[in-house]
Write a structure and sequence with these properties.
The structure is a single chain. The chain is an alpha+beta fold. It has three domains: about 210 residues, Lambda Exonuclease, Chain A, CATH 3.90.320; about 60 residues, no CATH class; about 45 residues, no CATH class. Helix content is about 45%, strand content about 10%. A five-stranded mixed beta sheet has the order 1-2-3-4-5. A hairpin with an 8-residue loop joins β1 and β2. α6 packs across α7, α9 packs across α11 and α14 packs across α15. The longest helix is centred in the C-terminal third of the chain and has 30 residues. It is globular, with a radius of gyration of 26 Å. The termini are far apart. The relative contact order is 0.10. Bound molecules: iron/sulfur cluster (SF4). Iron/sulfur cluster (SF4) binds next to α2, α8 and α9.
C-alpha cells in the first residue's frame, strides 16, 4: 500500500503546478524555505489511506476481502486515535461511491489503478506524481482525485486544473501502448464541501497541447528562470510569499499607486468590485508579512520599527483532579463546577458519522440560512439578494454584542 505521508515531493510537483506554471522562478526560490506540515495535512493523509483501503477492497476483493479491510481500518483507527473522526468513514464512502458509479457506466470492464505513481519525465525534468485513482473506460482515461479539505476557500475545480491534467498526461504515457485513448476525463471529489464533485472532460489533442505548455514552463522553472508573476491564487501557498520582493512590490503598487489616490470622492460599484479583488491579496500579504516578521523578531533578528511581545495569557489548573477534589470539599456544588452543554448537530455528526447521525436525528434538525457573505462571482453557490436583509443581519450582530 502507498505510504501517503512519504509520497515524495518532486521539485516541480503536480500539486503545485498552478503555481510554478504561472510563476516559473517560484519553485527554486521556495527551496530556501523549510517544509511545513500541518494537522490538516495529517488528517488528509489518514483519510486518503482509508479511502485507498476501501477502493482496493471494492476492486480487488479476492486479494483484499472484507475481513482484511475491517482489520486494516481497525488498525488505522488505533494508530491514529488522535486524528480519527467517525465522519471520515462516510466521506470516504462518498469517494468510493463516485468511483463505483463511474466504473458501472463504463462501456467495457474498466482497468483500475489505485495510487498509481505516474512518470512525468516526458514533460517535467525528474517529474512524477501519484494519482489517487485511474480508470480506463473504453477509449477514455478517467483520473479521480480525492481531497479531504473542508475549507470552502480551498475548493478546487477540475476544469483546466493543471494537477489533474498532469496526472492524466502521466496516465496516458503509462497506458498509451496498451489502450487506444481518445478522451480524458478528470474528477475532483471533495466530499466535505457541498457540491464538492467536479468533472471536466477534454480531448487527447488538447491534453497533449497542455503538455507542450508544461514542457516550456518546466524548462524555465527548473532553471529558476522566467518572470515572477504575483497574484492572489498563485502566491497563496508559496513558501516565499512573506518575503518575495515581486509580491511585495505588486501589493504596494496596488495599495498606494497614484491611480488609487486620485479617484473622485465616490467610487462606482465597478471600482468597488475591482478594489475588493485587488485588496484580497494585499490583506493576505500583510498577514504573511506579520507572521514572518514575528518569526524574525523571536529569532532575535531586528525588524526595524517592530518587536515581539508576550500576548494575552490564559489561566489553567495545575492539577485538575486535585483542585476539583479541594473545591468539592470546600462545599462548592457540582452545578457550579461543571458546565453541561448540549452537543451541536455538527459535533454529533462528527462523533457518530453521517449515516448514524441522519438516522437518529431526522426531523429534529433545524436548518438556518447563513448570514449573507460576499464571495467572488466564480463561487459555485447561487447568488442571493434578500434571504436575510442586511438590516436583519446587522441587528443579529448587534444583539450578540
Ligand atoms: S510569492 Fe508569488 S510572486 Fe513570489 S515567488 Fe511565490 S508565487 Fe511567485
Amino acid at each position: 500500500m502507498m505510504d501517503h505521508q512519504n509520497r515524495g515531493h518532486a521539485l516541480l510537483g503536480p500539486s503545485k503546478a498552478y503555481q510554478w506554471m504561472a510563476c516559473t522562478p517560484s519553485a527554486r526560490l521556495e527551496e530556501e524555505f523549510p517544509d511545513t506540515s500541518s494537522e490538516a495535512a495529517a488528517e488528509g493523509t489518514l483519510a486518503h489511506e482509508l479511502a485507498e483501503l476501501k477502493v482496493r477492497n471494492y476492486f480487488y476483493s479476492v486479494e483484499f476481502g472484507k475481513r482484511k479491510l475491517t482489520a486494516a481500518i481497525k488498525k488505522k483507527k488505533k494508530e491514529h486515535a488522535d486524528l480519527w473522526q467517525e465522519e471520515m468513514m462516510g466521506y470516504t464512502d462518498d469517494y468510493l461511491d463516485f468511483i463505483k458509479s463511474t466504473a458501472l457506466v463504463s462501456p467495457t470492464e474498466p482497468y483500475v489503478a489505485i495510487e498509481k505513481q505516474v512518470d512525468l519525465t516526458a514533460y517535467i525534468p525528474d517529474g512524477f506524481g501519484t494519482a489517487d485513482c485511474i480508470l480506463i473506460c473504453g477509449d477514455t482515461i478517467h483520473v479521480i482525485d480525492f481531497k479531504y479539505g473542508k475549507n470552502p476557500n480551498g475548493r478546487v475545480s477540475a476544469e483546466h486544473n493543471p494537477q489533474m491534467q498532469l496526472y492524466a498526461l502521466g496516465a496516458y504515457e503509462a497506458y498509451r501502448m496498451l489502450y487506444t485513448i481518445k478522451r480524458v476525463r478528470m474528477s475532483i471529489v471533495q466530499p466535505r464541501l457541498p457540491e464538492g464533485i467536479t468533472t471536466w472532460e477534454t480531448t487527447l489533442e488538447e491534453l497533449l497541447a497542455f503538455g507542450q505548455v508544461v514542457k516550456e514552463k518546466a524548462a524555465l522553472a527548473i532553471e529558476g528562470k522566467g518572470e515572477f508573476s504575483p497574484a492572489e491564487k498563485t502566491c497563496r501557498y508559496c513558501k516565499a510569499r512573506g518575503k518575495c520582493r515581486a509580491r511585495a512590490e505588486e501589493n504596494v503598487k496596488l495599495a498606494f499607486s497614484d491611480g488609487f489616490r486620485k479617484k473622485p470622492p465616490l467610487i462606482t460599484n465597478e471600482e468597488m468590485g475591482n478594489y475588493l479583488r485587488q485588496g484580497t491579496d494585499i490583506a493576505k500579504w500583510i498577514s504573511d508579512l506579520q507572521a514572518i516578521a514575528l518569526k524574525e523578531c523571536l529569532a532575535g533578528n531586528e525588524v526595524p520599527g517592530w518587536k515581539a511581545v508576550e500576548g494575552r495569557g490564559s489561566r489553567d489548573w495545575t492539577d485538575l483532579d486535585q483542585v476539583f477534589a479541594h473545591l468539592t470539599e470546600a462545599g462548592i456544588p457540582d452545578a457550579i463546577l461543571w458546565e453541561r452543554k448540549p452537543i451541536t448537530p455538527a459535533a454529533l455528526e462528527k462523533a457518530l458519522g453521517k449515516k448514524e447521525y441522519v438516522a437518529q436525528t431526522e426531523g429534529y434538525v433545524l436548518k438556518k440560512p447563513g448570514k449573507p457573505a460576499l464571495v467572488p462571482a466564480s463561487d459555485k453557490r447561487p447568488a442571493i439578494t434578500n434571504k436575510i436583509s442586511a438590516e436583519e443581519a446587522f441587528k443579529e450582530e448587534n444583539d450578540h454584542e
